[in-house]
Structure of inorganic diphosphatase:
Amino acid sequence: MTRTCSGSHAISSPYLCGSLRLPFPPSWLAMIATKEALNPIKQDCKKGKLRFVHNCFPYHGYIWNYGALPQTWEDPNHKDHDTGCMGDNDPIDACEIGTMVASRGEVKQVKILGTVALIDEGETDWKILCIDVNDPQAEKMNDVEDIEKHMPGLLKATVQWFKIYKIPAGSKENEFAFNGEAKNKEFAMKIIKETHECWSNLIMKKLENDKGLACKNISVEKSPYRIPEDEAANILNHVSILLL
């Protein structure tokens, strides 16, 4: 039986629920709509303009499967003690580096390998590095140093991609904490735990939801935002996907 769920709230870690780009047109920047009920995946819009993934030589679009870790939240009212910047008001982003191209909205169980700390327009924007547990390379991958060992150049390319990907749209280069150094699995798990606690406080209404996030869900026990499945299905039946 197919169940309706929220990609932000309904899937327990360590699963990757992605704003994965296919079958959207490859250039669309699709994101989890955190301010819409049940958080559908839609083309992102910023300052009234639709967003796209530009090609940045020598890269053509994304260089990994790109998604997010559900049940995490980078609190915009909390200064991250590692970066010194506030959170970006989103779930943690995840770069799944396996060999299999994912479908839009696909859920993957992943092994956490490490993280890099992007500072995106002054906000903390952690990027978790991970691999699908079913990927042929997964058995070899246990920590961040294994990425360089088995996929040489990918860490450097990842930092470079995030540094320049907004330039074609008129923005400046992005910056990184730790000079772009990738942190190991233990560090990444600490970040995931911290952001999961922030999400838990949000979904249990232990703090004020002053950023307009949509917290309705069907599965979080004792959450004041929990709704019946039939109500959730009705909500999604009325979701519109913006087409160009």
